[in-house]
Write a structure and sequence with these properties.
Membrane topology: Single-pass membrane protein
Keywords: Membrane, Signal-anchor, Transmembrane, Transmembrane helix
Oligomer: single chain
GO molecular function, one term: O-acetyltransferase activity
Helix content: 25-40%
InterPro entries: TBL, TBL_C, TBL_N
Number of helices: 10
Protein name: Trichome birefringence-like N-terminal domain-containing protein
Strand content: 15-25%
Radius of gyration: 21 Å
Length: about 425
């Protein structure tokens, strides 16, 4: 029997040094689902410890100056409400979604997951306007840096924008490695949309010289940036950076070339620092890189991690996500393990934001974790592939159906781009008046 592997387990990405060109592998293997999926085990085995007194809590995060508030409105505080209108696109009107997230194509029977909309408590989140988005980014270059969930958002954006202007896939003009690094060009607006694949942000390699396996240990050089993205990012005006699920697999952490600890390595005399350590250090290295690159003058949007929703078992033991409607805030809270993972990256962002501000750079946050925790209904589950009985697939409770709740991330992005555009205009007008 043939097995359909998930992206971390195929081994071909992991085996390369991330500062060099990647091996080409079938694109369908890359996005099926995570390399997490040790995430559920981590949640069960990790204590639901409270954060240290010095750590910011959810309230302080919401009060951070991310320029997402207008007239006192925080767009990230609200609820999912029923919405009767049809989605922005479907599997017929958009050719850019991949099969693994094309839930309509493979016969998902329920459609209720398509009819919910995020409603901020104190204002309205405008509908996505593709023309407005393209006008705001006209003449610019935008890139998604990170893992396949970030690429999930990119493909949502391609579908949204292609309803107004059809892009061209120009990836081959920039690289021979079109699996990992892609670029799309919108000639009507001279706008380039790219993807720089780097699930760890830092240099990584396989620790096992014998080859790759489901649970083999990866070496993570947490203080060495992955040049695959850092060498390219200065060419972009807008950077959306995100990562999460790859950090839950077995990892060995290196600093200054020396082993300092691990996550789930099970090696005698090596301290298990849990995934939080690698996650913290990787974001620290990524943010420091963005604030120190001499020619990078762009705006950085940090999207917080997107929780998975496996129930009834682990990812490879029958775990699934069959719910058909969102959780209420009473049913699901962002606390314990999820909160600490979230705060690990937010703490690093907060420090980086202060450094960036002193250097005249803008660091903004797409605060989506708590919002997406409420959407167990939005994943492909087993509707990301044909029902081929000769292939064994694992349920995908990590990525998001297209169309689906992931489109909301791009509504947030447009809202924030619009605020930044108005802010820049006001600043320029003020300088002229003065």
């Amino acid at each position: 029997m043939k097995f359909q592997s998930n992206e971390i387990l195929n081994g071909k990405y992991s085996a390369r040094n991330t500062t060099k060109s990647a091996f080409l592998i079938p694109f369908t293997l890359l996005l099926i689902m995570f390399p997490i999926i040790l995430m559920r085990n981590t949640e069960e085995s990790s204590p639901s410890s409270s954060l240290s007194p010095s750590s910011p809590n959810m309230s302080s995060v919401r009060n951070m100056n991310n320029r997402t508030e207008t007239k006192g409105c925080d767009i990230f505080s609200g609820n999912w409400i029923p919405y009767s209108e049809e989605p922005y696109y479907n599997n017929v009107t958009c050719k850019w979604m991949i099969d693994e997230q094309n839930c309509m194509k493979f016969g998902r029977p329920d459609e209720e997951y398509l009819h919910w909309r995020w409603k901020p408590d104190e204002c309205e989140l405008p509908l996505f306007n593709a023309t407005q988005f393209l006008e705001l980014v006209s003449g610019k270059k935008m890139v998604f840096v990170g893992d396949s969930v970030g690429r999930n958002q990119l493909q949502s954006l391609l579908c949204l924008l292609s309803q107004v202007s059809e892009p061209e896939d120009v990836s081959h003009k920039y690289t021979s490695d079109v699996i990992y690094f892609r670029r799309y060009f919108f000639p009507d607006y001279n706008f380039t949309l790219g993807n720089l694949w780097s699930p760890y942000f830092v240099r990584s390699s396989d620790a096992d010289k014998k080859g790759h396996s489901y649970n083999n240990i990866m070496k993570l050089y947490v203080d060495e940036v992955d040049e695959a993205w850092s060498s390219q990012v200065e060419n972009f005006d807008i950077v959306i950076i995100s990562a999460g699920h790859w950090f839950f697999r077995p990892l060995m952490y290196y600093e200054k070339g020396q082993l300092v600890g691990c996550n789930k390595c099970g090696i005698e005399n090596v301290t298990d620092l849990a995934h939080y350590y690698g996650y913290k250090m990787a974001f620290r290295t990524a943010f420091r890189t963005l604030t120190s690159l001499e020619n990078f003058k762009g705006v950085t949007y940090f999207r917080t991690f997107s929780p998975s929703h496996f129930e009834n078992g682990d990812w490879n033991k029958g775990g699934n996500c069959v719910r058909t409607k969102p959780f209420s805030k009473e049913e699901m809270k962002l606390n314990g393990y999820f909160l600490e993972t979230y705060m690990t990256q937010v703490n690093e962002f907060k420090v980086a934001q202060e450094v960036a501000s002193k250097k005249g750079l803008k660091f903004l946050m797409l605060n989506t974790t708590e919002i997406m925790l409420l959407r167990p209904d939005g994943h492909p589950n087993d509707y990301g592939h044909s029902k081929n009985t000769n292939v064994t697939y694992y349920n995908d409770c990590v990525h998001w159906c297209l169309p689906g709740p992931v489109d909301t991330w791009n509504e947030f992005l447009l809202y924030m781009l619009n605020i930044e555009s108005n802010s820049s205009y006001d600043s320029k007008l003020e300088s002229v008046v003065l």
